[in-house]
Design goal:
By secondary structure, the protein is mainly α. About 65% of the residues lie in helices and about 0% in strands. The chain starts with about 40 loop residues before the first helix and ends in a 17-residue tail after the last helix. This is G protein-coupled receptor 6.
Length: about 325
């Protein structure tokens, strides 16, 4: 069946449209039947595989490297774990969509994906808060109070994510009330609105914190330059680089998730499901980009990768230890 064709017998899918048509994402329990594989589902599965592989490496490095036990690496590990689970969820969604068609399994899958992606976005917020604190309270950052703060953020991040992921399983779904369905069946309109509102709130908080971080970085760079009695070219270069990096981080996050979050609010379940695919696929790319931005650019993780995979790390290779705000 061609992509975009309408079909009343579309297959069941969690989070994602089972087959392209004028129906939105739908979950249902149906007898097994040969189903043409949707190319969009293949792309989501490939995306999930890449996400899982990338983040599995990060998790392995952090777990097996005793030196990576500082608060900032704990938060990066939390982000990598959330993205790893999200990648696994996308793979399982593909398998259960075309192999095992069960209403119960589908609800579990959609709950798993909601919890994983929520934990990923929340971990990004926690990293942003950590960056801000490392600059705003630089003198007291390395203290027991910071460790307690990090652990509190992690508990809140995963606790809230688990609760949101359990909502569809515990009955907040539209399987028995199709009029309440959103563009992401079996999630209801109110459920999707809650998730989107939470994302908008997190995005606004991150935007505010990154603006404050930019102000602090610029102020510190200016003070250092004044202590040297003149503004050097390196001062402007460092400031510009720092602001550009923060803009890339926030821009990537917003470009990935904003289209999907907005469409979940304004979209109608009767719209072609290709619209949901077109906004959801870029959202998954954020979990693919996260390890590059937050992990692989860090030189301590690069050093640990040499040790873990090559076993040929030489002490003469120089690595500069970065502060939390550099990660």
């Amino acid at each position: 069946e061609a992509l975009g064709a309408s079909s009343p017998s579309s297959a069941a899918v969690p989070w994602l449209p089972a087959r392209a048509g004028n129906a939105s994402l739908e979950l249902a329990s149906r007898p097994p039947a040969p189903t043409a594989i949707n190319p969009w589902d293949v792309m989501l599965c490939v995306s999930g595989t890449a996400i899982a592989c990338e983040n599995a490496i990060v998790v392995a490095i952090i777990c097996y490297s005793p030196t990576l036990r500082t608060p900032m690496f704990v938060l990066i590990g939390s982000l990598a774990t959330a993205d790893l689970l999200a990648g696994i969820g996308l793979i399982l969604n593909f398998v259960f969509q075309y192999v095992i068609r069960s209403e119960t399994v589908s609800l579990l899958t959609v709950g798993f994906l909601v919890a994983s992606f929520t934990a990923s976005v929340s971990s990004l917020l926690a990293i942003t808060v950590d960056r801000y604190l490392s600059l705003y309270n630089a003198l007291t950052y390395y203290s027991e109070r910071t460790v307690l703060c990090i652990h509190t953020m992690l508990v809140c991040t995963w606790g809230v994510s688990l609760c949101l992921g359990l909502l569809p399983v515990l009955g907040w779904n539209c399987l028995h009330d199709h009029a309440a369905c959103s563009v992401v069946k079996p999630l209801t309109k109110s459920n999707v609105t809650l998730l989107s509102a939470s994302f908008f709130l997190i995005f606004i908080i991150m935007l505010h914190l990154y603006i404050e971080i930019c102000k602090i970085v610029c102020r510190h760079a200016h003070q250092i330059a004044l202590q040297q009695h003149f503004l050097t070219a390196s001062h402007y270069v460092a400031t510009k680089k720092g602001v550009s990096t923060l803009a890339i981080i926030l821009g990537t996050f917003g470009a990935s998730w904003l289209p999907f979050a907005i469409y979940c609010v304004v979209g109608d379940p009767n719209y072609p499901s290709v619209y949901t695919y077109a906004t959801l696929l870029p959202a998954t790319y954020n979990s693919m980009i996260n390890p590059i931005i937050y992990a692989y650019r860090n030189q301590e993780i690069q050093r640990s990768m040499w040790v873990l995979f090559c076993g040929c790390f030489q002490s003469k290779v120089s690595f500069r230890s970065r502060s939390p705000s550099d990660v």
